[in-house]
Each structure stands twice: as C-alpha cells, then as structure tokens.
Amino acid sequence: MKKQKVVYSSLLLLLVVLIFGRCTKTETVYETITETITDTLRLDPVLVAEGKQTFRYDAFGDEAFWSDILHIDQAILGEGNGGYGPGVSPATALSVGLKVDAEALPAEVVDAINTGQIGLEDPATTLELLKLDAVVGVKGNFDSEGMMTSVGITCALCHSTVDDSFSDGIGKRLDGWPNRDLNVGAIISLSDNVEFIAGLLHVEETTTRTVLQGWGPGKFNAGLLIDGKALRPDGSVAANLIPAAYGMQGVHLATYTGWGDMTYWNAFVANLEMHGQGNFFDARLNDAGQFPIAAENNFGNVTNSPDLITPKLPGLQAYQLSLLAPAPPAGSFDEIAAERGRALFEGVAQCSSCHIPPIFTDAGQNLHSAQEIGIDDFEASRSPTGLYRTTPLRGLFARTKGGFYHDGRFSTLDDVVEHYDNHFGLQLSPQDKSGLVEYLKSI
Ligand code: HEC
Ligand code: HEC
Fold this sequence. Notes:
mainly alpha; two-stranded parallel ribbon; two-stranded antiparallel ribbon; binds heme C
C-alpha cells in the first residue's frame, strides 16, 4: 500500500516535471536561438571591419555614372563653385533626406554650426562635409587643391540613417536601417543629363523626370533599368520601399521578390544599380521578354577590369551579417498585449507558418505566390521567381515610415493585420488585432 503511494506520487511528480519542463522549453527556445546567432556566426572581425568600410565609404568606381554621366557632382557644386544651378546646401541635402554623420564632424565644426558661423544654406559647407566623409552614403573625391572632382554613392546612402542626436538629420550612423526619408528620385533629378537613363528606357527625357519625381521619399525602383517598367498597371508610379539591411541572419532569399541570396543581390546592386565597376553574371537577365532593357544592354554579363566589386563581396556579406536587428525601445509597445499577440502569431493566426521565429521568414524556399498573400502579382512578375519573398520581420519598429509590404501599400500595422484577417478569414476580435500589432512592434 505504502509502496503503491510512493509509485503514484513519483509518477505524478514525473508528469508535473514533464509538463512544466515542456512549457518552459518551448517558451525559451526562440530567445536562446536569437541570443546565440552572433556567437555561432563567429564572424571574422577583420572581414567585418573591411565590410563596414566598404558599406559606408566605397563607391566601387560608380563615379563614372553619378558624376561623368549624371553630373551630380556639378549639381552639388553649383554655379558658384564651377558647377551648374544653385548648388546643394546642407539644408537642401537634408530636405531630400540625406543624413549627416555627426561623429565625423570635428568639435570646431560642431561649434561653428551651433553659433551659426557655418551656414547650412551655403553649398560650400556641403563640400566641407563631403571632405569629412560626413554626408552618409555620398563619397566626394577631391584633388590636391581641395577641389571636388567627382562624387559617387555607397550602400549607406539607402541602407543607413542617423539617430538625429545632434538635430534632425544629423546624428550617429545607424547602419542597416533603411533611410525612409531619402528621395532618390529627387537626387537623380538634380542631373542636367538624364538623357542617358531616358535613352536606356527609350522614352523622352521629360517622361523620365516625371517618373523619378514620382518615387517619393524612401522609395526606389530597382527593376526600372532592367525591365523598363516605370508604372504599375493602374498607371501609378512603381517604386519599392528601401528595406532594412539588418536582421538578415538565417534568411535565404533577399529582396521583396527573392532575386537571390544577400550576396547575389549585393553584387547586383553594386554593378547594376549603383553602376560600380565590377563583374556580374546572371543569364536570367538575357530573357528579352521579361528583361528587355537588361537583355539589350547585356546587363547579365558585366565585365570590368580592374574589378572593383567582387573582392569586396566577402567583407560586405560579413558586415551585413553582423548587423543584428535593433531591439525596440522600452515602452514602445504594450508588453501584455504583445504576449497575447505572440500566442496568436504562432497559433490561430498562423503567421508563423511563413514568418518562422526567430528568422521570421520561411526556413527553406521563402517564396509565396501573390494569391497566397492576397495581393496583385505586378511586382512578383518582374522577378525571375514570379513570387513574393516572406519579409523577415525583425526590427520592424525601425522601418515603419512609408508603410508596409514592398510598395508601402499598407500604411499601418493595423492595416496589415486587417488585410490578413480578411484574406485568411481569421475572424480576429479587435483585441486580437491589437495584440498582433503590439507583438509586431516588439519583434
Ligand atoms: C539607391 C538606393 C539603394 C542603394 C544605393 C543600395 N540599395 Fe540595397 N536596396 C534598395 C532597394 C529599393 C531594395 C529593395 C529591392 C526590391 O526588392 O525591389 C534593396 C534591397 C537590398 C537588400 C535586400 C534586403 C532584404 O530584405 O532582402 C540588400 C541585402 C541590400 N539591398 C544591400 C545593399 C548593399 C550591400 C548595397 C551596396 C552595395 C546596396 N544595397 C545599395 C535600395 C538601395
Ligand atoms: C503565406 C505566407 C505568409 C503568411 C501566412 C503571413 N505572411 Fe506576412 N508576409 C508574407 C509575404 C510574402 C510578405 C511580403 C509582402 C510584400 O512585401 O508585398 C509579408 C509581409 C508581411 C509584413 C510587412 C513587412 C514589411 O516590412 O513590409 C508584415 C508586418 C507581416 N507580413 C505580418 C504578418 C502577420 C501578422 C501574419 C499573420 C496574420 C502574416 N504576416 C502571415 C508572407 C506571409
């Protein structure tokens, strides 16, 4: 009798241990993985440092495009300094979303800005900032007399911003954060020679300018010079939000439509978007039906000697992998509601069937059809995959400006959740929806 009691209570104890052990195990498993991502990557610090330098300051010889063809250097200089037009003052630069790295400014420059001795209205000040490598993503080259001879752009132009710690648009660099203020179209429009782009597209120069001006802040049409598609089927200007370059650890395909992995895309961008001098190969671009501009110009088979891009790819990859998604600031979301949202995300709302924690995209082929996610297939059909890539959601809070989904069609997270609720027929209560939104803000 006594023995039986002992057996029963031991069994009960075992059961309790098993049940609780299980619960705590599933609850902590994601946190443990997230914490160890950096450790397990064991990135080579030398390679990471090299990549950081490349990401921030390397234009890969793209001055040949931005200066020799588009003359952006002369637009910055302005008539007063040997270029054309009014020139680009720091105030103008900030107004099109360019950012200034406060840490690159010597104390006397900071003082002079504060006392008004350095005018933010004077293009000459922009030249001084460029000399200091302080305009994020814009690389100025100067001759021995201190005259600016050309400018190029770097990855940081679109994929870094600043924390505004000095003033609006001036602060510490935040690499990997998309610059959702940056008006790329307005910057290219500074050019007195968009004929080159118009020629590639076989359209009039005025049409090209209208399109560039239609992109708006935080957006860019990366496919334009590949397939020539400037407009969506409804006639509106096509452009995608600049995505984050952080939180890419464990993510298979990159870009909204999964063109390739991150390092494939790095090579694509450096050669075909920035117009750096490198080598790039992708036979898919020879398909004249889908990619008429690329096929006509042999963009699927770019060769340059010397190759200023390929040797930088390992460092760039390492640096991007070192860019962990930022953690949401304390108090920026409701923790209790977020916990409720997490249960829904991983449960009845089935979000985690695609956005699998902790990478928040699918493990494996992370692509889905337009119908699956309930939107049109215009952008998907522009990619060789014909599909949409499940966006990795880490650090979502740091890229809410401009909206969500590739083209920012949903302006708020509430709109995104509403869309899924309708599309998947989830029948979420208002409380469920707000929980999901708070959880998304917490990732
Ligand atoms: C002119 C702005 C611009 C510049 C410069 C730029 N990018 Fe991008 N980047 C974009 C846009 C826009 C996309 C989204 C493309 C798409 O899917 O349509 C993108 C996508 C990416 C992605 C995919 C992110 C994801 O969520 O999968 C990576 C990685 C990336 N860029 C890295 C780089 C690197 C590295 C450089 C420098 C070699 C660079 N980019 C230069 C605008 C830019
Ligand atoms: C069938 C796969 C799938 C499911 C299920 C799914 N998503 Fe998505 N999600 C995607 C894809 C693909 C995109 C990219 C859409 C685009 O950019 O046009 C995306 C984009 C998003 C975005 C926008 C991210 C950004 O930066 O623009 C959010 C937020 C999001 N999903 C949240 C959710 C939530 C919440 C759920 C559950 C209610 C969910 N998803 C269910 C595939 C899925």
